[in-house]
Amino acid sequence: MSEYLIGVDLGGTNIRAAAVSPSGSILDRISIPTQAYQGRRAVVKRLIELIRGIEEKFGKKGQRLVGVGMGIAGAIYLNRGLVSRSPNLEGWENFKLMDRLQKYLDFPIFLENDANAIALGEKWKGAGKKAESFCCLTLGTGIGGGIILNNKIWHGVDGTAGEIGHTTLDPQGPPCNCGSNGCLEIYASATGIKRMVLEKIREGNKSSLLKKCQNKIEDITAKMVYDSAKDGDELCQGVFREMGRYLGIGLANLINLLNLELIVLGGKVTQAWNLFIGETRKEIKKRGFTPSAKRTKITKAKLGDDAGVLGAVYFALEKLGGEQRRRQY
Amino acid sequence: MSEYLIGVDLGGTNIRAAAVSPSGSILDRISIPTQAYQGRRAVVKRLIELIRGIEEKFGKKGQRLVGVGMGIAGAIYLNRGLVSRSPNLEGWENFKLMDRLQKYLDFPIFLENDANAIALGEKWKGAGKKAESFCCLTLGTGIGGGIILNNKIWHGVDGTAGEIGHTTLDPQGPPCNCGSNGCLEIYASATGIKRMVLEKIREGNKSSLLKKCQNKIEDITAKMVYDSAKDGDELCQGVFREMGRYLGIGLANLINLLNLELIVLGGKVTQAWNLFIGETRKEIKKRGFTPSAKRTKITKAKLGDDAGVLGAVYFALEKLGGEQRRRQY
């Protein structure tokens, strides 16, 4: 009877799940909308149904589920299976998710922060395969960060480490949702890109975007900024350069602090790689300590949306018996 | 025959050495000027003489030297005993200090970065005794940083981790010696304090310092700023508040990244503790992620100049056989 695991990536927008072999092959993928606005109870119900559905399907094929790993958009108290804070899942604060799930599901479940799961996924099967110590940033609506030191996630004392998106880069910078201001996230995320574009347009600068959005500038998305930049729009290109510059400052800080061998950048914003990475490297060269900064490789994530589910499975395997177990297959 | 170790703190200004029992009691202290301008050869010669002098003295008492630990103001490649970069010891770049010393000294020698040695000293006998994961900053002429994670120094891949003094806090900030600008060091070090005071005086602000330095403002020292602030000088008090604010931004970044249980602040600048710490805590509260930021304790270092030599001995003991050896005594 062959064994498999389920990896779940529980985000504010989608719940992604995958059936994964212990060697890391994805056997099946499912994605459903989170519909977080329906409240915690409804989301958990759908989550349980989703997992049971996969289990039933693979059970019929004679495959045995050995565990579930779950990456969650929020701060996790690992030892207590507690979601302590989640800006994207309203009402989940201090929610004992683990206890709730174990009431209905009769196999080992392991929780991890979603950005950490992504970092572990890239380590297992992606851009971080050969690295022992690296950082993985996900540049999406916000910015997630996972720090891997000596092959393990650095969780910090409460499990909340890795919040590079909320390090201050400019004390006079614009406000951030987190209550601070001038955070990396307000420059180098999709939200940050939109903010910078709107700011420049409101200052009276011209852009082809104005026509595209029929002057409803609130409708502008980061994707539209990207498309216009590719089409030669100077304002949009300038915004990506500025975004790249701030990203470089944040990464140089990370390098000077932790002297990492690699930084992996993932998330939708990295589609615009060529539009920002030059400025990023320039800032790192200027602000990073040698020799550390010279040797740190900056590279693109490889796994896309699969990183989170794979990393969650990797984490579950570690907890289930670690290296030994993975090597066995 | 009782055993002891020698701890050395090799700085740009002084070489401090101490004979230390394996349980961490300081048996003897010696300090001589580094006189780095005489060049590497002369400094190394004096260093060897210093160590031999201690060995002779304790040898007469029938005590046996088991090892030497050395903290050095520079980036150290640990595995190769190499000083790769040292802003305060000119001409020491890529110097194989370990090989040179072992030619003349016939006992185990271990090198460490000086800020890391200080962090280890505070962990062994000082403010970090009970903490497993913390950061120790030395606010002196510059800013040194040592990061301890799970009871061990985080060295990074090259041994250069911990440069929190050279993380950027303001991309529009004044230039730093490191080639970047807006680094924490230009705000929260003695040099930074002097810089801020001169800037404000040149802008035409009044201060009792002008009289004290007889209008030779280049003669102003951080100590004079401190004394004037204590005497009620508003400009000087304002500078310490500003310094505290920037320090708080840097510490909040550190907390959000690493979720540490403790931050230890040492160095001469911490004499002015009450003049800046309020602003520091305010910034951490504003910018630090809860729950991490709430639980991180900010505390004063306890060991002063002894931290470096004690930490160097601690490091040597670790290398010589670790926990076991220390417990044995």
Explain how this protein is built.
The structure is a homodimer of 329-residue chains. With 329 residues, chain A is of the alpha/beta class. The first copy, chain A, contains 12 helices and 12 strands. In chain A, the strands form 3 sheets. Chain A has a 5-stranded mixed β-sheet with strand order 3-2-1-4-7, with helices on both faces. Chain A has a 5-stranded mixed β-sheet with strand order 10-9-8-11-12, covered by helices on one side. A two-stranded antiparallel ribbon of chain A has the order 5-6. In chain A, a hairpin with a 4-residue loop joins strand 5 (75-77) and strand 6 (82-85). In chain A, helix 3 (114-125) packs across helix 11 (306-320). Chain A is globular, with a radius of gyration of 20 Å. The two termini of chain A are 13 Å apart.
